[in-house]
Amino acid sequence: MPKILQFPTPKGLNAADDPISMSPDFFPVFKNAAINEDGLWAKRPGYVQHGETISSGATIESLLLFRKRDGTQLLFAAAGGELLRLNTDGTWTVIRSGLGSNRLSGATFNDRLVIFNGVNLPFWTDGETWGELANLCTDWAYGDVPRYVITFKGRLFAGGRPGARQMIYYSALQDMNDWVSANNAGYIDLSMQAAIASGAVTGLAVWEGYLVFLMADECFVWDWVSPQTQGLVKVFPVGAPYGFPVGFGADLLFASRLGIKSLTRSAKTGELNIGNVSEKIEPLVLARMKTGTVRSAAIFPLMRLVLFHMPPSILVYDYARGAWYEWTGIDAASMLVVDYDLFIGGSGGKLYRMDGSATSDAGTAIDYQVETPWLRLGKIMNYKKPLWLRAILGEGALGALRIVEQVDFASYTVTDQTLTAISGAYWRSAKWREATWRGRRAEAVTIPLYGRGKALKFLFRHNELNKPFAIAAVELVYNEAGFRP
Q1: Predicted pLDDT of residue 395
Q2: Residue 373 to residues 192, 334, 353, 376, 476: CA-CA distances in angstroms?
Q3: What's the count of helices (H) and strands (E) in the chain, helices before strands?
Q4: For residue 117, which phi and psi values (nearest 5 degrees)?
């Protein structure tokens, strides 16, 4: 009598465990896929170009949002030494040129967007013109100014100055043009608290009513009421070497030398803690941190995702499910979320917008790959004879699905099959109960299998242009063949 293995609900990518011993609800490859709201293994959203191409053709290295008091939202890009504003008709207007660095940090303050980049003297823009800030600290100079800026309780806070690596500066109350007034403006010297003398400020954030100062190997939580009432709440011996802290829900996430960490507060005790959210992909994260950088990071609220661009791919944390995915082929020198939209700054002066209905990356096919771990199917010494796979495809799945069957660990047999679905002519269809499939039409396919061995694994691949794809459920039908093949 044939036996049936129903594939469990997927839990995403696992790069920490060996595929031989990995639980079948994790996948050693979960590329360009996501678990959607219906629990399907769906191809990730694609993106579309948004606006015209910037005439210089330079890479968009920073994206900034300016929300004005009248409700107007302006999107700015930094590329080729220029700060540009995106107009409503999709064209670009150059606001200023001569930027010494295109890696910008911005904060909205008194109906101005204040911008720091660590090179140029800090400046502001109202969306039409720009000007340098006044009454700056006397030791600030071109090439030696803070790199990061945030606003908190009516002041600007800035850090990351090359000549004062552990200093946080703050402006006078409600005055972006006063950084020197005694008892009003001033600085916080973190070197008095830092355990590592060579540490440098790599990022600033506001979280749970606190200021958070990130260094390469330390994280400082700072309470602030006024220059006279302030102080260190807690310091954690873990930091963010490349910056890019990302707030989602009640958590602040960042990439450290020890993995992707989350600054959290206990709902019961109020205690502050650092959690580890990358346990299942730790080796992958650590390898990326050791050899590369974090190029950009952002959230995608529409799907409750947090994205870390750690070349050569983006590591995606599903905040709702606690799962990880890997997305490739995305040209993301910078990222920015505006309400529910995720914008991506790419090479060649192109701005993109992630689109939940897009099935390509601005005309480039998305390479969907999901690979199971080794499925041992009971006693490891028993040989199994796979008979067929039964797969339920998501509504509207189109194009060629490539299924690679691999049998046994060492001298394995590989069966490579490609099946094609076209609109209105599926392999076999059925109407599933509304309680199970929400009244949507799903498509069923039976795939014959070959070979014989002690274990099996499967790769599902779909990379056709402009064709959606998702897998709703899979089951394997097999026979046990005893101890001999």
Answers
A1: 73
A2: 50, 34, 34, 9, 14
A3: 2, 40
A4: -145, 5
